[in-house]
């Protein structure tokens, strides 16, 4: 590498940036990049990731730490991240985070064994994320969040604009005549749910509606729990005319439960989701949902962590990525 630097008339770090296809390449002149690659080819250069890791004490691997993957959206984020890492000369190692006492300890040990310099945290509840970030910092490992944002825990976060998404779906239902709108929330242990919850209350207040406590449900993950809470909503008098769900899987469970009770969607109750999974296009009725840019989330967080790892400087903060409501057949006019 030193010989290439001398022949090209550039510094050795510049050669390293080019040959390793790092994020810093975009700051170099195209003719410089071309000259370095041509010289590397002429001199028969080939990279040795193992040797580099031993010498520098860190590999070109990013860890993706998350509880066992359940939703298609999480798979899509990890897949997009892995592709982006490959394009930047890195790779992604998926490490499942168990909920037991040794879960965090084992994740950090694996990162140390593989000389992983940075981890990306996905869908981790606040308290467990706090424990993981603290252990990672003690081990000299950098951390980032994707999908959530607890700025006091990690300095890098990539998320979608959950607030505007919830505001838009509330407005959509309001314009259809709905006033008794229920919210089925995942858990406020996740910042994404907190942002949606706050946006729901703020937008309802802005529209002159004070949702009663019985229309706000939280902490239900399994289909059985979601179905049970949906049945409880049906027993209310008056019952809600629309249900906003924190995730598409929750919305699909609500949809199925209502139909089994003979409740028509959307004629009797409208249902909306969050994420916009492809499956929602093919349900009957098709699901109205807030579309999240899951692929862009994965791509951006990898770019941020690669830049941080290679420059030792915190990357520029990226504002929440835009979302949009995709209106389909599961939302309709409020019944008289």
Automatic annotation (TrEMBL):
This is LacI family DNA-binding transcriptional regulator. It comes from Ruficoccus amylovorans. Signal peptide: none annotated. SUPFAM superfamilies: lambda repressor-like DNA-binding domains, Periplasmic binding protein-like I. Keywords: DNA-binding, Transcription, Transcription regulation. It comes from the Bacteria. InterPro entries: HTH_LacI, LacI/GalR-like_sensor, Lambda_DNA-bd_dom_sf, Peripla_BP_I. GO terms for molecular function: DNA-binding transcription factor activity; transcription cis-regulatory region binding. Pfam families: LacI, Peripla_BP_3.
């Amino acid at each position: 590498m030193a010989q290439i630097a001398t022949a090209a008339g550039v510094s050795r770090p510049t050669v390293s940036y080019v040959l390793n296809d790092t994020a810093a390449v975009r700051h170099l002149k195209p003719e410089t990049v071309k000259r370095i690659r041509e010289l590397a080819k002429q001199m028969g250069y080939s990279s040795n990731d193992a040797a580099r890791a031993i010498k520098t004490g860190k590999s070109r691997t990013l860890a993706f730490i998350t509880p066992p993957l359940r939703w298609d959206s999480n798979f899509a984020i990890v897949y997009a991240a892995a592709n982006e890492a490959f394009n930047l000369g890195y790779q992604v190692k998926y490490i499942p985070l168990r909920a037991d006492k040794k879960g965090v300890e084992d994740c950090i040990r694996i990162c140390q064994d593989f000389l992983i310099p940075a981890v990306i945290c996905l869908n981790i509840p606040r308290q467990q994320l706090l424990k993981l970030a603290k252990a990672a910092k003690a081990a000299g490992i950098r951390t980032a969040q994707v999908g959530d944002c607890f700025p006091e825990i990690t300095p890098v976060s990539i998320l979608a604009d959950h607030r505007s998404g919830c505001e838009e779906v509330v407005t959509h239902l309001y314009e259809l005549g709905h006033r008794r709108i229920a919210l089925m929330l995942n858990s406020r242990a996740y910042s994404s749910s907190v942002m949606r919850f706050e946006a729901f209350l703020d937008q309802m207040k802005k529209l002159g509606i004070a949702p009663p406590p019985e229309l706000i449900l939280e902490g239900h993950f399994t289909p059985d729990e979601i179905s049970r809470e949906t049945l409880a909503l049906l027993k209310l008098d008056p019952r809600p005319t629309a249900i906003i769900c924190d995730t598409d899987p929750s919305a699909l469970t609500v949809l199925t439960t209502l139909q089994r009770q003979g409740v028509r969607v959307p004629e009797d109750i409208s249902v909306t989701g969050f994420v916009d999974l492809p499956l929602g296009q093919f349900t009957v009725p098709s699901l109205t949902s807030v579309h999240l840019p899951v692929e862009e989330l994965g791509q951006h967080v990898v770019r941020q962590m690669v830049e941080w790892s290679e420059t030792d400087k915190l990357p520029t903060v990226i504002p929440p990525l835009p979302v949009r409501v995709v209106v389909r057949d599961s939302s309709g006019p409020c019944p008289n």
